[in-house]
Amino acid sequence: MKDNILICVFLVVTFIGVPAQVASHAPTGMAQNAPAKVSTHQSVVPQVSDKPVARVNGVVLTDRDLVREMYTIFPYARQHNGFPKEQEASIRQGALEMIIFEELVYQDAVRRKVTIPPSQLKEAEADFQRQFGTPEQYREFLKVEMQGNPELVRQKIRRSLMIETLLKEDLENKSAVSAAEAKDYYDKNPQRFQVPESYSIQTISILPPRDVDPGKLSAQQQKDIRKRADEALRQAKTTKSYQDFGLLAEKISEDDFRVNMGDHNTVKGDELPPNIVTVLENMKPGTVSDIIQVQNAYTIIRLNAHNLAQQMTFEQVKAPLQQELQKEKYEHLRSNLAKQLRAKAKIEVV
Q1: Mean of pLDDT over the chain
Q2: Taking the complete model, does pTM exceed 0.90, yes or no?
């Protein structure tokens, strides 16, 4: 439920310019030493020069902050040599909005005199250092990114913890949804928890030649297709199990489901052709249908289960429903907080 940049103290790890064991963040130092480029996949690697990108009540946010957040939003950029060109602008804008919000929350935490116990700060600093493979890597990080000053690391960790504390108080704690609230929503929205009738099926299909217009099949071609369908039916009727039917589907079926033993998993009734539903309604689980014609194709179905429409109980949906409602409540509170902080702030995008 927390903003991803604020979960624990590790947002500062994105400033790292040497290898570290943090897979979800990019080393901005690497970006600084490499020119921006577009790969054969049209990927963009942003440069870092520590130039201002925004000012929040006079506090300067730099492109280093921005790139750090871009990699947080889109961590795959590290593995794919940059950001997809067509998405880079939207990722950059999202990152800019996030770092501005982060700074606004921090400034509010300072105004409200949010404090971090020394023991918590010490533990967080130790956790941060453990992310580095060796003490040498951490020392190199201090040298390259923190001017060799451990106190700068403590400041950034304290800042992160202050933001996290405020968000927990204002958003996370207030967005909790009780079982009673979830039950009230369940009772008022019964249609959301109706499970429609569905069928678990496997198929063997015999199709017209792919290179021939189905509307222009000759009489002989139609006869040949039917003959193959009749032979498929003869073999299908001899199968005794899911496995038997599935292996036969892999061998002779011509539809795309053959690679999965002909298994369609569970299909809603309203997603199937009416003539197939009619057949399925009169079948028992474990039985194989006769040939069903759908336009110029022929299908044979094994019914594995017929699931009747039902209303899910509150106990079945309680946990995921509470999570869903809590997330909605959190996002609403977060949006309101951002609006309130922005209303009192002077923000300049450079």
Answers
A1: 87
A2: no
